[in-house]
Amino acid sequence: MGKINLAPTTVENREQRLGTIIAWDGKASKLVEESGYSVRGCGNKKGKGCELCEIKGPFTQGSVCSEQMVECQAGNVRDAVLIQHSPIGCAVSQTIYNSIYRNGLAIRGLPVENLKIISTNLKEGDMVFGGIEKLAQTIRDAWERHKPNTIFIGTACATGIIGDDVDSVAAEYSEKLGIPVVPLHCEGFRSKHWSTGFDTTQHGILRSIVRKNPKKQEDLVNVINLWGSDVFTPMLKELNLRVNYVIDLATVEDLAQMSEAAATVGFCNTLSSYLAQGLEQNFGVPELKAPQPYGFSGTDAWLRGLAKITHREELCEAYIKRERERLAPKVEELRKKLKGVKGYVATGSAYSHGLITVLRELGIEVNGSLVFHHDPIYDSEDPIQDSLAYLVNNYGDVENFSVSNRQPHQLYALLKKAKPDFLLIRHNGLAPLASRLGIPAAPLGDEHIAVGYEGIVNLGEAIISVLQRKKFHEDLAQHVKLPYTKWWLSQEDPYILAKNPELIYQD
């Protein structure tokens, strides 16, 4: 197992640590097979022959960067301030994240407020002479305005280029202010996939905020999540366990007490991989190693794994029995209503695997999925957390399984091949293209909608609601024009330009 090293201020990016790729096409079973080197412990340590093959595209039409993930993680700690040491353009996403943050607080019943994110607004002169003084002044301003319990400093491509010594400033003001001032090195060019930004935030928190001499709380469980509704409190209450939600919408104290918990769990291996293993390896908090909590079987295994760690097996079995009996009739009714329906999932990787699991338990055909990246292995290196292998081995193959880093130009051919009745999606920028093809999309703003036993029913009802609007989307498709050439629309292979980049220069 690779040791998570908290000594440096920078985190090893995902492509180096986990072998992450952002472009691939084929059957899901083939991707599981090709990813098998990671299970054997081969990885990049024993030569290029062990690397997972990746389709190298000639350009990127659209994506996000690691800094934005720092915004949506560190920027969502309620009693902290995030400083974006960057040009003002990097702060443009504060608008959408502020909306998500406010909605998340409202869903959880917490006081609604705005984000506390400040940009140093680097300009041309700062790029020549450096922006350290501006950063120091912004730290002082953040302290005077908000009196936060922590100040995070997120870097940007610009600060990486000019080489500002952010670590020294952070150390200086940690001492002066008596609070953690945490550098988060998240330059957009640092990694080819934005999920490294999750790890960057988690690395900084593990180094600087998590309590080093914890007093254990045997009934406390860390739940690594985003902004979704509180579905874990009622689930874990059945096992007499308390939830410590991290990182989004948490307080600094919530983050500090993570080392005191009895276990760490998550709803998505992509999000939780680094933090959970960091807590296990450096603070002795065991990570739950089990399938993700989706569908009856996955949720059973997830709960039993947690119950074993926390010694609550009897309570767990009683809860599983009650929930299965309560929801079986509802799920059967949904299966009747959804018989013959075909779905498509376009989300982050491990989350997509979980959603497909639920769709198939609802009897929905899924012959295609788009994930935004693929990790051959997670930080625990435990095969039981291989969510794609779990999907294939327990619910069957996915014929058209594609990895693409949110490239809208490829989605057209992917949907044309799969011919779904609806699309599940979390990143709404791709939804309008599906609508232009007559396919309604369910934007999963609440990422917890499909979690647990109740999640099977929640997702089924959401899909029925979406299908009721299918006629509108079919009418829309008759009156809109796609922004692509006839040549591109005639292509069946969405990766043709990656395989034959010379086609870009042909008339």
Automatic annotation (TrEMBL):
Pfam families tied to this protein: Oxidored_nitro
SUPFAM superfamilies registered for this protein in UniProt: Helical backbone' metal receptor
InterPro entries reported for this sequence: Nase/OxRdtase_comp1, NifE-like
Domain annotation Nitrogenase/oxidoreductase component: ranges: 74-467
Single GO MF descriptor: oxidoreductase activity
PANTHER family in the record: NITROGENASE IRON-MOLYBDENUM COFACTOR BIOSYNTHESIS PROTEIN NIFE
Protein name, entry field: Nitrogenase
